[in-house]
Specification:
The radius of gyration is 55 Å and the shape is elongated. Helix content is 47%, strand content 19%. Strand 4 (192-202) and strand 5 form a beta hairpin. The chain has five helices and five strands, in the order ααααβββαββ. By secondary structure, the protein is α+β, with helices and mostly antiparallel strands. The protein has helices at 14-18, 30-88, 92-111, 118-131, 176-187, and strands at 135-143, 149-150, 162-173, 192-202, 210-219.
Length: 234
């Protein structure tokens, strides 16, 4: 007789016999869950609105304080200006005199812009003559009435400045060489131009001395005075 051995089911272990299955399930309806989510979202939104409102309130408070401070400063400045204007009325005559003086000075500068410093011009002529060993006996001058023109002509000019008048210079010196040196020295000046000797005569009482006469143009660089450019000797 044949015997067939069948596999025997493995016996259950004590751990498997006592194990509890972890099964969970949400039994709440979907509308309740949605309502809870909505309430949570609404709460966060309210918190955010409160925070923004607090920030805006703080900004408004600071801005209002700064505006008040600026208004106070403006009020103080306005009061000071009013007080100064009120005080200035007591010195109205002095202010009027100062304004009149300024206006007069501007008018004199406009009228006297073509003034000529004769004293400074004579100092230049006399010092240049002394450096050449000459003595000036007389200087006669006159300003042009045409307003001056460029120093041009058939002969080259010693200056590019406009001619505003002319001079006639007379004097004496030891010899003709001294007169020639004076002419050269005048040709290097800026306030005069085109020196031209018209006569050189020997002194009857001394065979060594000579007298001379020359013509010189006055340039626009000689125009100066109290109300114009400051006069300077060259």
């Amino acid at each position: 007789m044949a015997t067939t051995l069948m596999p025997v089911d493995p016996a259950m272990s004590p751990q498997r016999a006592t194990r509890v299955l972890h099964i969970s399930a949400s039994l709440l309806p979907e509308e309740i869950i949605s309502a809870r989510r909505a309430r949570r979202t609404r709460g966060w939104a309210i918190v955010a609105v409160i925070i923004v409102a607090c920030l805006l309130g703080g900004w408004f408070f600071v801005a209002n304080q700064e505006t008040r401070a600026a208004d106070d400063e403006l009020s103080t400045a306005t009061t000071e200006v009013t007080d100064l204007q009120r005080s200035q009325r007591a010195y109205k005559e002095v202010v009027d005199v100062q304004n009149s003086t300024d206006t007069l000075s501007k008018q004199l500068k406009a009228v006297m812009k073509s003034d000529l410093g004769w004293a400074a011009l004579y100092v230049t002529l006399n010092d240049t003559a002394a450096a050449s060993g000459l003595t000036l006996n007389g200087v006669q001058g006159a300003l042009s009435t045409t307003g001056g023109s460029a120093a041009t002509g058939t002969l080259p000019s010693t200056s590019t400045a406009a001619t505003v008048g002319s001079l006639v210079i007379t004097g004496s010196g030891p010899d003709k060489e001294a007169v020639a040196a004076y002419v050269d020295a005048l040709g290097k000046q800026t306030v005069v131009a085109n020196p031209f000797v018209t006569a050189v005569n020997s002194d009857a009482q001394s065979s060594d001395d000579v007298t001379f006469s020359m013509n010189v143009d006055i340039t626009s660089l000689a125009l100066c005075g109290r109300f114009g450019e400051k006069c300077e000797t060259k």
